[in-house]
Amino acid sequence: MSKVVVMDHPLIQHKIGVIRRKETGSRDFRAMIGEIASLITYEATKDLKLQDVEIETPICKTTAKELAGKKMAIVPILRAGLGMVDGMLAMIPSAKVGHIGLYRNEETLEPVEYYCKLPADCSERDVFVVDPMLATGGSAVAAIHMLKARGVKNIRLLCIIGAPEGVKRMQEEHPDVDIYIGALDDHLNEHGYIVPGLGDAGDRIFGTK
What we know:
The structure is a single chain. By secondary structure, the chain is an alpha/beta fold. The chain has 6 helices and 13 strands. The protein has helices at residues 10-20, 26-44, 82-91, 138-149, 164-173, 201-206, and strands at residues 4-6, 50-56, 61-67, 72-78, 96-97, 99-104, 111-117, 126-130, 133-134, 154-162, 178-184, 187-188, 194-195. Strand 12 (187-188) and strand 13 form a beta hairpin. Helix 1 packs antiparallel against helix 2 (26-44) and helix 2 crosses helix 3 (82-91). The longest helix is centred in the first third of the chain and has 19 residues, at 26-44. The chain is globular and about 65 Å long.
């Protein structure tokens, strides 16, 4: 069964409190989404392997640590996932970026694919799928199915707000994918929105509502 890590860091909790507020405007919302993504990335990458390398400081030669050659990719689920990319790239600037386009059918609440563009060597990379909201889990489950169909094996899911229903579905359909969540909320309402949540993340990031 996959690991579910819910963040308890005070900075993450404070920033999530800011973006929950309905009066928070798009500029501040975007900035906070990026900052939270950076902090979640810190947690989601803490088990990356290191290797020793010999370097020379201005004083002498010494042994330092560096990442052990592992290649990474960030794959946002469009469009809201784009809001997390810059914050993650600030932490892992060598990562490549792919994109998966899904929209939710408002009647069935199921995802519909309309776009997929990935790095050519994506199957050789550790892939971080990112979406601010894990609600029903439909989009995340579908995106990860798409990645696995293209040979990707090492996948982690990063979200800012999650619902228990989405976590449960992810673990049932992708028990090999670890999940990192900024805050785990109470439930979904009859419209498939997370409660208390923060509304539609895409609309709030891009100011389209």
